[in-house]
Amino acid sequence: MASQVYRAFVFALYQFSIVLGIALLPVxxxxxxxxxxxxxxxxxxxxxxxxxxxxxxATA
Length: 60
Fold this sequence. Notes:
Elements: H1 2-23, H2 25-34, H3 40-54
Helix pairs in contact: 1-3
């Protein structure tokens, strides 16, 4: 039961990070012109990997 709650929580964070990345795209483009990059891509990648690790393996 706790693993299902954890998996749902990580999935929600993953989805939120994708929405946040899309919403901050204009800001990221503006800051990259100045020379500063936002770490949104790394956050999405890490949360995606955490979700994949939390998902149980399919038994064949």
